[in-house]
Each structure stands twice: as C-alpha cells, then as structure tokens.
Amino acid sequence: MIDAKRIRSFGETNSIDELAQSYVTDVDDDLEVLGWELSAAAVRICDALGAYRSPSEGDARFYIIKTTSWAG
Predict the structure, then answer these.
(1) How far apart are CA 8 and CA 47, in angstroms?
(2) pLDDT (mean) for 12-31
C-alpha cells in the first residue's frame, strides 16, 4: 500500500481527522507544531526512520525518511 493511503486509512479507522483529510488547519494557529506531530504519526504508521522539514518561508513541507544511503 502506498504510504499516503496507509496514513489516510489509519486516520479514518482511528477517527483522526487530521490524518484522514488532505488539508488541515489548526485552531491554535501553530501549524509548525501540528506539522511535526502529524509527521511523527506518519513515521510510526509507515515504520519510517524519521522526518525532515524543508527550510522555506511561508508554506512548510514535511517529509518522512524511509531509507538512507551514501551518495556516491
């Protein structure tokens, strides 16, 4: 199963709206914290190694890291 579908399915099964929806908002207006929380959940669900947030102003992009290797 593709990771995004696995995460969405987990959210739907466990009634976690933030994981079941394609777009989320935060009532506390702290999207940085929400992004890290959802990334941490995704790491656990997908048995990933960790998460990374790309440096950017404005929008934030969070990635989960599934494998690592040395660049040759």
Answers:
(1) 15
(2) 86
